[in-house]
Protein: Amino acid ABC transporter membrane protein 1, PAAT family
Organism: Rhizobium tibeticum
Amino acid sequence: MATLELIGFGSTGWGALLLLAALMTLCVTASALAIGAVLGAIISAAKLSGKTSLVALGNVYTTVFRGVPELLIIYLIYFGGSSAVTSIGKAMGYEGFLGLPSFLAGALAVGIISGAYQAEVFRGAYLAISKGELEAASAIGMHRGLRFRRIIIPQVLRFAIPGLGNVWQLSLKDSALISVTGLAELMRTSQVAAGSTRQYFLFFIVGGALYLILTSLSDRIFNGAERRANRSMPTAAMGKA
């Protein structure tokens, strides 16, 4: 009974706080994935451009942010960003420390890491597009913008869904590292609950179960999206031209 009260949803329970923390985890992961998608698209375009300098820049980005430990990147963004904001504040006449918001720092750090993986996902998806499709689009008079909108984007997204699902799962687990910034996401809340009640095993098990629920639901969503994308014929866009 005491255990149920601890993890319940009443005034003395931690259940509601854990659910809010799970929602925060989803929000920061979704924000990170969006940031990573923008960065990944830019880096993949650079690596596919064929220009030596851009290819080298893209390779450096993906090598560094896939090779450096995620926790170190979070520390660099959070503490380094706070130092930069404080310096800017001092230059504008404000005295005192200005900390970078935990949510922003966490989403940005995980997003930068995610961008390195998404860049490779997008690059591989582009290379999977049939060259015959692109040649046929050019042959029927599609200009570059129309070809990009009707052929390249739909095909890249279709081929990228499985890889993006893996990146989402990776980012979801990386979000646990953001607890070092003090953000009340799932890992941080589980730690606080465990420390406050001395029920370490209980709350870490509950936290792990919530992570498994989130990852399982995410798997189903991405699998459904992949099935739906594969229903349409690869040449459907050609017929709409």
Q: What stands out?
A: The first helix runs from residue 2 to 6. The chain has a mean pLDDT of 85. The two ends are 65 Å apart (CA to CA).
